[in-house]
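2024-03-11 09:14:02 DEBUG pipeline.ingest accepted 1 chain
2024-03-11 09:14:02 DEBUG pipeline.ingest length=154
2024-03-11 09:14:03 DEBUG pipeline.predict start
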Amino acid sequence: MTRHPPAIDDESLVAALRLAAGRDPVPAHVSAAARAVFGLRVPGASAALPVATAAPLGVRSADEARLLRFTAAELTVELEITSVDGLVDLAGQVSPLPETGTTVEVRTPHLTQSREVSATGQFAVTGLPPGWFSVVCRRPEHCPVVTSWTRIRP
């Protein structure tokens, strides 16, 4: 005679697996943070991915500034990051030269700073908290371009 285990519903199975793995349910603050980050996505945007850069010789030492470059198919965003008194300053350049009305948003999980890009493609944001950031470039009649999230440490 063959014995079959009793049928178990999905909810009981998940609970048994949690007990067997020794894991508790996800804390509420973790779920809330995940929902907040999900709200930072930019649907329809092109991704600008990081590209390795070398600091120009004789400009600044690597201790003073950090240079980052992100590229998408039709756009490059270059960033210089400096720390002052525990806060972060970010100066950027968009190329090719942007059209009138081009803006950038420097985003952290807690705040967004918007700037209009100059005719030469430059922008700056000062006093950012250290942590994660991303830049969104919005050009008239183009899809937005979003850099990958990068962590800034003072």
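2024-03-11 09:14:41 DEBUG pipeline.report The mean pLDDT is 85.
2024-03-11 09:14:41 DEBUG pipeline.predict end
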